[in-house]
Amino acid sequence: MQLPATKAEEKKLALAEESRLFITFWLADFLFALPVEEVVEINRSLDITPVPQAPSFVSGIINLRGQILTAIDLAQRIGLKREKEAHHNVIIGRDEEPLSLLVEQVGDVLEIPVSQIEDPPEVIEGLDIQFVKNVSKLPDRLLVILDVKRILEH
Amino acid sequence: MGFEEDVLKDFITEAKENLERLDEEFVELEQRPEDRELLSSIFRTIHTIKGTAGFFGFKTLEAIAHFAEDILSKLRDGLVVADEETIDVLLKAVDYIKAIIAALEETGKEPVDETYLDFLVDLRNFAEKVAKKAESGGTQTGDKSQEEATKEASPSETGATSEESAAKDEKEKTPEEVKAPEEGEAKGERAKPEAESKPEAPKPSSPKKEEKAVPHVHLTETHVRVDVKLLDQLMNLAGELVLSRNRLVQIASRISDAELQNATQNLSLVTTELQEKIMKTRMQPIGNVFNKFPRIVRDLARSTGKKVNLRIEGADTELDRSIIDAIKDPLTHLVRNSIDHGIEDPDTRVQLGKPPVGTLVLRAYHEGGQVVIEIEDDGRGIDVEKVKQKAIEKGLITPAEAEKMSDREALALIFKPGFSTAKQVTNISGRGVGMDVVKTNVEKLGGSIDIQTVLGAGTTVRLKIPLTLAIIPALVVTCEGQRYAIPQVSLRELVGLSSETRKNIHQIGDSEFFRLRGEMVPIIRLSKILGLEAEARENESLVILNSGAMDFGLVVDEIWDSEEIVVKPLGKHFKDISIFAGATIMGDGKMALILDVVGISRKIGLKVEDVDRVKEETTSRSTLTEDEQQFILLFNVSPEEQFAIPLALVARLDKIKADKLEFVGGKEIVQYRGRSMPIIRLENYLPIQPLPEQDEYHLLVFAEGEREVAFLVSRIVDSIQTHVKLDERLYQIEGVLGSAIIKDRTTLFLDVYKIIEMHDPYFFMKIIPQEERPYRVLLAEDSPFFRQMIANYLSAAGYEVETATDGLEAWEKLQKESFDVLITDIEMPHMTGIELAKKIRADERLANLPIMALTSLASDEHKRRGLEAGIDEYQVKLERSKVLEALADLLNRKYAQAA
Predict the structure, then answer these.
(1) Could you report the per-residue pLDDT of B564-595, keeping only the tens digit for each?
(2) Which of A87, B120, B680, B735 is the most buried (most CB within 10 A)?
(3) Is there a shared CATH topology between the B492-616 domain and the B625-759 domain?
C-alpha cells in the first residue's frame, strides 16, 4: 500500500535534487542507513534502565530530557549477532512514539543518488531481510537502508 | 479585524457555556412551566445570543434565536404555558444554535445548509401558532413583529438573498417554502433593536431582569478564562520543576552548605505549593459532566416513552480535568443503559407497584483518595439467568459453565466483548459498542467498575476513579540494584525483616505467608516477580500492600525513600507487562519503574491458584469473586488422606520433635511457649487412618482467648486460594463438613470447631442466653461449607440454629416460624442478603428483627450498603469470636431495649 506512494515521492525528489540524505551507522560490521527525515536526533550514551519481563529486543528505557523512551537493541531486533557494546542512540519516530535504536558507531551523513537506491536482494547473510527496505552499492561495501516502519511495528 | 476575531472567540466561549446551562434550564422548565424567573433567565440567554449574532451578521443564528425568543416572551409573560411540544421545539432550536456555534468555531462562518432553513420555517410557523394562542391574552406580538420585520427588511437584503438563492439552487421547493426563510432571515436581521425595545413596553418583569443580572457582572470581574492547553503545559512544566527540585535537594544535602540548604528548602516549599495550585486549576467539579445529563435523560426518556426523574448528588466533587473528559463517554453509555434497559415504561411500573416515574441517581463522592461515581436506577434490574442464556447463545460460555457460575461471575459476562443484554438492538444503547468498551476506558484511567443488581428492584453501577493521574506520592524501594516506585495509595505498612520478624514467615507448599497481627498475608519476593536471579540477603524489608481485593506482602531489598513522582507512560513495547504502571524520573535524573500493585496481585493469585486452571478464568475470578474465595490449608495425617481447613482459622503453624509430646493425666500435651498445650490427634475423633510415627510433627494451633489447642499432623501439603465447592452428601460424619476434589485428590474439609468441641466441650465459652430458652437463629448462607461451619460454631455457643440455603428460603422460613435473629450471607442466589434485609424491613411484623450480615470481605462500602438496607451488624465469616461477641451484643441491645 505505502510502497507506490513512497516511490512516487522518491521520483519527485529525484527530479528536484536527484539524491537523498541518509544517516549511517555501524552494527556488527554492517553499514546501515536511515533517511535523515526519519531520524529525530543522535545521542551519545544515555543511561539505560532495564525493564524486567520486556521483550528480548528491548534494552530498557532512557531519559531523553524528561521524556521516557524505549531503547531497542537494534541488533537483536533485526537478527544480528552483535559483538561490541552498542551505546549510541539513534532516535527515530517523528510522528509516532519515539524510540531509541542502539548502535555501535555513528557514521557519516551520505548523499545517495536516487538512481543508486536499489531493491534489496533476496538474502543478506546474517540479517533478517524483512527489516531491509533498500540497499545501495557503495564503492567499498553495501549500504543497508532499514525499513523504519517495520522496526517500529510491535 | 483582530479585535473582531477576539470578540468572536469570546462570544463563542460564552455562548457555549450559556447553551449548556440552557439544556438544564429547559428540563427544569418542564417541571415548573410557570417559573417566571427561570423563563426570564432562558429568555436573557437567547436574547444575548441573538444580539451578538446580529452584531456579527450571522443571519441564520440570529433568526433562530429571534423566533425562540418570540416564543419565550409569550411564555414568560404567562400568555401561554410551556407544554412538552413547545419545549421540544425550543430545545431543537438550542440544538441548531449549538450546531451553528460549533460551525462558527471551526470555520468562522455560518454553515450553509438547507436543514437550517427548513427548521427556521418550522420554528417560525410554530412561533406564529404560539402567538395566535397568546392572542386571547390581548397581545399580538408575533404578528406585529412580523410586520415590522417585513417593513425593515431592506438592510439585510444581500445576506438574505444569497441564502435564498442557495436554498433555491439546492432544492426544488414550493415558492412559499422558499420564501419563508427569507422572511425569517429578514426579520432576524432587525431583531436586535426590536427585541431590546419590545420586552420593555408590555412586560412587568423587566425590573426583575435587572436584579438577576447583577451576579453576572460580579463573575466577570473575578474570573479569567484560560485556554485549557495552557493549563496542560503548566502542568507539564510543574512536573519538570518538581523533578529539578528533587535533584537540587539531593545535591544540596550532599554539599551541606547552610545557605544553599535554606534556599533549596524555600524553593522546595514554593514548588510544592505551585504544583498543588496548578493541580487545583485543573480540578473541575464533576457537575461539568453531570449537568449534561438532565437533557440526555429527558430526550432518552421521551424517545423510549418512559418517565425518568434524574437526581444528581455530589456534583461539586472535584476531579482532574483530564479525567473528567475521559469519563464523559463511559458515563453517557451507562446512563443510556439504565434508561434503555433498566427503567420500565410507566404502565409496567404501575403494574409492578412501583411509582410510574423511574428514578435515576447520578452520585459522586470521595473515598480513600479516589472518586466514586454511582449510576443507580430503580428499574427492572439485570436478570442473571438471561445474561447467562445470552452468553451461551453468543458462545461466550458453555451451558455447563453457566450452571456453575455465581451471580457475580455471570454479571461479569456483561463486560465481555460482543455482549449486549437488550433483547433487540435499539438505537439508544445497542450500538455494538458495549460495556466492554466502558470497562476498558475506565480501566485505562486506573479505575474500576462494578455492578450490583437486584432483580426487579434496580441496578447500581459503581466506577472508582483516581483523582489525578499526573503526580503521585510514592515509596521508592530497591531490588537487585534498581529502584522501583510503589504508589502510596496501595501501601499499608512496612515491616523490617530481622531474624526475629522472620519467624512470622511460614512456608506452605510453594507459597510463603507472613503472620501479621493474627492475619495470614501471602508474601512474594519482588525479584521473583521481576524474574531476576536473587541473592540471599540478611536485611530485607517487607512492604505490605493492598490491591483492593487482597493484602499481600512484597519482599524488597531496601526501602529507599518516599517521594512525589511524576508518572510517565511506558512505550507500547511494554503494554503486555502488567506489573508496571509506568516510569518516573528520580531526583538524580535516573529512572525508576512504577509497580502496578493490582497487576502484581494478579500474578500472585495465579501462583497460589491451582496451576491447571485456565489463566483467564483465574484472573476474572480473583478480581470479581473474591467474596467467596479463600485460602485453604491442605495437610495429611496419614499420607493417603488429604484434609483441608480454612487457613484463617489457624492461629499458628509450627513444628515439634516427637520427644516433646507428653502424656499426662490421660491427656496428650506439648510444652509450647512455656505452657502446656493440649494436642488433638484427629484419628481419635474421626474415622481416618492414624498418624504414623515420625521424628517431627506439624502443629496447627488454634486459639480462643487465652486457651490454645493444636492438631497434630504429619505433613503440610500446600495452601491454595480457591472456591470451595463442597459435596456434603458423601461424608456425613460429625466433624467433617464435606468433601471436594483439590489437586486431583478427594479432600475432606474438617469442622475445626466441632472437633475441638468433641475434644473439650468447655473449650469455647458459651453464650448464656438471657431467657430460659436458647435464642433461635436463622442462618442464610448458600455455601454449604460456610453454612455448616457457622451453624456449628453457633450451636456450640448455645444457640438454636435453623439454616436456609439462600435469601428466598430464609424469607419463607421467616413467614412460618419465629426467630430471634437473622444471620445472613450477602452474595446468595435467588435473593441476596441485601434484598432479604430490605424485604424484612419493609414487613411490619419483621421490621424489628435483628439482622447480622456475614461476608468473607467486609469493606466500608459493603457496610454502607448493608446499613442502608437495614442490616444491624456486619462481620467477617471466619472471625468466629468476633461474630459471637457481636451477636451477643446485638441481641442484648435489641432485647434489653424491648424490655
Answers:
(1) 787 777 888 887 888 888 888 887 778 899 99
(2) B120
(3) yes
